[in-house]
Design a protein that fits this description.
about 45% helix; mainly alpha
């Protein structure tokens, strides 16, 4: 929507600083409602109406993803991981789930190949108990594939499911 990201971050930081741990996961539902209200006021204060039409909301969200390709975080992420700026980005639309609902939930990104080398091996990064945006903004963990013995059962299943999906997609694409 053309509003500086830092304005939204300041609201989040203000509320997180009032919690015991100072993390996103320490915010309660009342904090989140207050954050939403404050962030809506920022948008309206920038003299931009928040669309009522869900399809217009979706269009704006899609545009924001494509525009984020040029953002500082995305540029830094590509530089650190030696990913070419010429590749472009994509948008996937799916039902939302919360990755920050405890140690048995999380967020991540996975590729059927290593995007830097092209190696035919599951590649990705994940964080437990974190929202999706933190994968490109914070200290992600590389997917340990195949999952080592002792890995939490749920995470081991996720790695197995990703590997199965990678194999099926590669077979389907003839790769």
């Amino acid at each position: 929507m053309g509003v500086a990201h830092e304005k939204f971050e300041r609201v989040m930081d203000r509320y997180k600083s009032q919690t015991t741990g100072g993390r996103d996961t320490d915010l309660n539902s009342e904090n989140l409602r207050d954050i939403i209200t404050a962030q809506k006021q920022i948008i309206v204060g920038e003299q931009q109406a928040i669309p009522d039409d869900p399809y217009e909301q979706l269009r704006v969200a899609i545009a924001a993803v494509f525009n984020s390709w040029k953002g500082r975080r995305a540029v830094d992420y590509r530089r650190i991981n030696r990913i070419s700026d010429s590749l472009g980005t994509a948008v996937n639309i799916q039902a939302m789930v919360f990755g920050n609902m405890g140690e048995d939930s999380g967020t991540g990104v996975a590729f059927t190949r290593n995007p830097s080398t092209g190696e035919k091996k599951l590649y990705g990064e994940y964080l437990l108990n974190a929202p999706g945006e933190d994968v490109v903004a914070g200290p992600e963990r590389q997917i340990d594939q195949p999952a080592k013995k002792g890995t939490a059962g749920g995470l081991q299943r996720v790695c197995f499911n990703h590997q199965s999906a990678r194999t099926a997609l590669s077979r389907h694409a003839g790769l």
